[in-house]
Amino acid sequence: MSLYNIEVETIKGEAGTLAPYKGQVLLIVNTATKCGFAGQFAGLQKLHDKYREQGFSVLGFPNGQFANQEPGNDNEVAEACQINFGVTFPLFAKADVIGSHIHPLFKHLTSEARGVLGSKFIKWNFTKFLVDQNGNVLKRFGSTKTPEQIESHIRKLLNQPTPV
């Protein structure tokens, strides 16, 4: 199954796929506005702004499965992300990232990029998946890995020189 054929819904309720992102480097993240890692929204937005002209996008998928740290509906989540964190990168409808109702996107991501000790399961909010321009899931980063720590991996895929 191609990543680009997976059906997704935007945070505004529009159905589609990830096909519009074909050819881009992607950082797909399960987010939560009430999570202790929510401070990473700023770093994710900074990466999105810095590299979007070079073919990079952050895609946020809100999730309330971990301690209900994303309690609102999609409209409330969108508002909180924009007002509290200045998020302008694409957000999608709340999606299950674990369990029997796992969204097909996260089923695909977790089978392609395993976690610690080969685990498929996402352990917490702000797990990040790096996808290359061809839709290959290259790497998974846990919640504690900050956007700033991931930037070098993004630069490499975009063929950007490392700053001195």
Compact summary:
27% of the residues lie in helices and 18% in strands. The chain is of the alpha+beta class and 164 residues long.
Structural write-up:
The chain is an alpha+beta fold. The chain has a single domain (3-157), classed as Glutaredoxin. 27% of the residues lie in helices and 18% in strands. It has four helices and six strands; from the N terminus they run E-E-E-H-E-H-H-E-E-H. It has helices spanning 40-51, 74-85, 104-112, 147-157; strands at 7-9, 15-17, 25-31, 56-62, 128-131, 137-141. A four-stranded mixed β-sheet has the order 4-3-5-6, with helices on both faces. It has a two-stranded antiparallel ribbon with strand order 1-2. A hairpin with a 5-residue loop joins strand 5 (128-131) and strand 6. Helix 1 packs parallel to helix 4 (147-157). It is globular.
What are its keywords?
four-stranded mixed sheet; alpha+beta; Glutaredoxin; two-stranded antiparallel ribbon; 164 residues
Mind telling me the C-alpha Rg?
15 Å
Helix content class: 25-40%
Number of strands: 6
Main β-sheet, in a few words? 4 strands, mixed
Q: Give me the CATH superfamily.
A: Glutaredoxin
What name is given to the CATH topology? Glutaredoxin
N-to-C CA distance: 40 Å
Q: Helical region count?
A: 4
Order of helices and strands: EEEHEHHEEH
* Poorly predicted runs of 5 or more residues: none
CATH architecture: 3-Layer(aba) Sandwich
Shape descriptor: globular
* Tally of discrete structural domains: 1
The overall pLDDT, averaged over residues, is 93
Helix and strand content put the structural class at alpha+beta
Residue fraction in strands: 15-25%
